[in-house]
Amino acid sequence: MPKTAALALSLFTLAASHAAAADLELGRTTFAGACAACHGAEAKGDGPMADLISIPVPDLTRIAARNGGEFPWLKVVHLIDGRTGLRGHGGPMPLFGALFAEDTAAADAPDGTPVITSARVLALTDYLAAIQVAE
């Protein structure tokens, strides 16, 4: 491989790595601001509001474990942005897709399905995928 191609590949890899880290940081801060009150700072379902909710608040670090070891990326996007009929504490879970509507982004789900939602919803989904724990 010529030196210029190797340098370009290195720079692309570095930029992609930096972008992924920035997306995870956006996901972490979005979680802290929008989800931690119910799900807890560590996403274990023990946030300060959890006792006020009529159903158990799920441990979000075990999503993959509850789904046969696979993180259901597209399902999680749809739960966060409100495309599913998830009901929590007697009513719908807060639907953050509408709140984050001004930062529309597109991505491909792991199965190749194109997804258009908020950049913060995508970052939050990737953050949740990153904090999964094994059984």
Key attributes of the depicted protein:
135 residues, mainly alpha, Cytochrome Bc1 Complex, Chain D, domain 2, two-stranded antiparallel sheet, 6 helices, globular
Total strands:
4
**How is the CATH topology named?**
Cytochrome Bc1 Complex, Chain D, domain 2
**Helix coverage percent:** 40-55%
Whole-number mean pLDDT? 80
The class by helix and strand makeup works out as mainly alpha
Tally of alpha and pi helices:
6
Any idea of the CATH class? Mainly Alpha
What is the helix/strand order? Answer: HHHHEEHEEH
The tally of structural domains comes to 1
Silhouette: globular
Computed CA radius of gyration, to the nearest angstrom: 17 Å
* Strand arrangement across the biggest beta sheet: 1-2
Query: Which second-level CATH architecture applies?
Result: Orthogonal Bundle
- From the structure provided, what is the oligomeric state, counting identical versus distinct chains? single chain
Largest sheet: 2 strands, antiparallel
β content, as a range?
5-15%
What features would you describe in this structure?
The protein has 135 residues and is mainly α. It has one domain: Cytochrome Bc1 Complex, Chain D, domain 2, CATH 1.10.760. Helices cover 48% and strands 10% of the residues. The chain has 6 helices and 4 strands, in the order ααααββαββα. A two-stranded antiparallel sheet has the order 1-2. A two-stranded antiparallel sheet has the order 3-4.
